[in-house]
Design goal:
Blueprint (H helix, E strand, L loop, with lengths): L1 H9 L5 E3 L5 H6 L3 E3 L12 H4 L8 H13 L3 H14 L5 E4 L3 H10 L3 E5 L22 H33 L17 E4 L16 E3 L16 H10 L3 E5 L11 H8 L5 E5 L15 E4 L4 H4 L5 E4 L3 H9 L4 E3 L6 H11 L2 E3 L7 H12 L2 H17 L1 H19 L1
Parallel strand pairs: 1-2, 3-4, 4-5, 5-6, 7-8, 7-10, 8-9, 10-11, 11-12
GO molecular function: hexosyltransferase activity; UDP-glycosyltransferase activity
Pfam family, one: EryCIII-like_C
Protein name: Glycosyl transferase
Length: 413
Amino acid sequence: MSAVAGELADRGHEVLAYTGAKYEQRFRAVGAQWLPWQRATDFDDSDLAATFPPVGDGKGLRGGMANVEHVLMGTGAGQAADLLAEVARRPADLLVTDHLAFGAALAGETLGLPWASVSVTPLPLESRELPPPGFPAMPARGPLGRVRDRALRSAVHAMTGRLLSPMLNRMRAGAGLPPTTGGMDSLLSPHLILAQGVVGLEYPRTDLPPYVHFVGRLAAAPAAQELPPWWAEVESARSAGLPVVHVTQGTLDVDLSDLLKPAIAGLGGERVLVVCTTGGAPVDALGPLPDNVRAARFLPHDRLLPLTDVMVTNGGWGGVLAAVQAGVPLVVAGASLDKPEVARRVAWSGVGRNLHTGRPGAARVRRAVRQVLARPELAGRARELGVRMAAAGGAGAAATLLEGLIGERVAGR
């Protein structure tokens, strides 16, 4: 979102970023003004339980449903109220929303403004040709598979009708809107959806609406970042033909025992250089490191990924897109939120392995990394899709599409 905001600001647009206090400076740094959450409950996305105790660690069905109820939908009416008050004070031409900030969708509907959704996860739009979004199944093949997917969609519709629709309509009522029968798709823009990724990484479908555009990876320009004293070892390893394996859990799922520690245990002593990032946790929390393992809180992906042979990740969509754009094959161990969807797309597209768990054992990680290193076609496929990602245009393409939506509104006045 900061990449889109920065591109629009660079083009001379007045950009107001409505976001939590944690991200104020990130948006100000790219030239946007800041509007704080006021009626909506602000929170730290790396510690949801501090503000929303029922979410707990966010894992499993119970944690996921609590996240939807208390965080995503629970803050929606307050978000809409904040945005409506701001637009009454200072009119806007366009709303551009992280598709999980549901209040912006409610505000757009109330105001009758054109609005655009930026899909910050794999495209969640339902299709009559695919399993339901979020259901743990790959796209079907053949007539029997299509029958299976149709049955799955019916079953999921019945379940969401009982579980999600009441939450959705309570949120809408809180924003002064009538009930909807449109389900979760009603929270996606009917004007423009900016989908990250490209065809080939995303499942094909013939019923994709014309207002959905794949724009590759949306990423702000990398900031200068100090490199650790051992950085030269990464460059030397690559030059010497020693495989470099990057292991990351992103910045939100920070339980080091989920992936980082098993990966270190599994890859310690292997003929690879392992480069870990903790996402902010102190490096010494990892304990003693094997001789072939290096670790830092953060590392710049624009510097690291071109030197990387395999990336082991819990499936954050942004990190996976960065790896694919750099032509790096993946091992994904994802279990919460959208991460299983990401892992399925990695396996389906041929750019890596899906471990089907968020807490793999050391031996499982070791086997998967060995398999990816032994299959050069995975790296070749990643490079192929990486070229497509770069060609899709990123934030520049997104801004051009958004300007087109503004132009349509101005022309219609």
